[in-house]
Design brief:
31% helix; 7 helices; 2 domains; D-amino Acid Aminotransferase, Chain A, domain 1; 7-stranded antiparallel sheet; 5-stranded antiparallel sheet; 254 residues; Phosphorylase Kinase, domain 1; alpha+beta
């Protein structure tokens, strides 16, 4: 498929104009960033793994009725998605205390929360994606009451499904980030899941060892990022056991 005009380049993905009106090609890069892009590296094969893992999860969520932007995977690093108007919020669902909430509230990492906690951050890199309340969201018009209701309901439903999915392969879903968008059909629109779900956007701990299998390996200089992402993909059954870098290079040579 011939690649069209670049629409946007973010930290981990590039969006290109799609082959049909209302479609976009989402390309997964190997770039790894942390601390609002203060830390940066290239991890060979990460984009391939995230593309396949996100494809699998979005497909499964679609089967249980969670509306999302995914259409199909195009290649090792690309997927075709529906064009949506992104709601400028990061939606974090926490099952266990880890990361920023521990620093903000003085909670020990690993503390199980009595119920899933939904937090919102305003998407603004220049501000460090600050935590905001529902009142902030409504006051500044980032989303309306009906959208917020849909977002929270969908987030909790996704959390329920994802927690079970990961538990079935020996992984604890500690927390994860979601993004949503408005999918327009004429003058009407619906709120749909967008972006990606991968070890870049989730905290995943091995049930038996507590080993981190996500982006925290990069944030905390633990190393073994690709091995951890590959293990998640292997347990989900979404990639053969071959080296992802070799798979990617083989596809590029064809």
């Amino acid at each position: 498929m011939s690649r069209k005009s670049k629409l946007y380049e973010g930290k981990a993905k590039i969006l290109y104009e799609g082959p049909e009106p209302g479609t976009i090609i989402q390309y997964f890069k190997d770039d790894a960033t942390a601390f609002n892009n203060q830390k940066h590296a290239t991890l060979a094969g990460k984009g391939v793994l995230n593309n396949h893992i996100s494809e699998f999860i979005f497909t499964q969520l679609g089967k249980i009725g969670v509306p999302n932007h995914f259409i199909r995977r195009l290649s090792m690093r690309e997927q075709l998605i529906k064009g949506v108007e992104i709601i400028p919020l990061e939606v974090i669902i926490r099952n266990i205390a880890a990361g920023s909430i521990c620093k903000r509230l003085g909670i020990d990492e690993g503390t199980a929360l009595p119920r899933p906690l939904v937090e919102f951050c305003y998407k603004a890199d220049e501000l460090g994606d600050p935590v905001v309340s529902e009142d902030h969201i409504l006051t500044f018009g980032w989303a309306n009451e009906y959208e917020l209701e849909d977002i929270v309901s969908l987030a909790l439903r996704i959390n329920d499904y994802m927690s079970g999915l990961m538990a079935g392969i020996g992984i604890t879903l500690v927390d994860f980030k979601l993004e949503f968008g408005r999918l327009y059909e004429g003058d009407d629109y619906m709120t749909v899941l967008a972006d990606e779900i991968s070890p870049d956007s989730c905290r995943l701990w091995d049930n038996k060892t507590g080993e981190k299998m996500d982006k925290d390996r990069f944030r905390r200089d633990l190393g073994g990022e690709i091995e951890a992402y590959s293990e998640v993909a292997r347990r989900l059954g979404v990639l053969p056991s071959a080296d992802v870098a070799d798979l990617d290079n083989h596809r590029k040579r064809k």
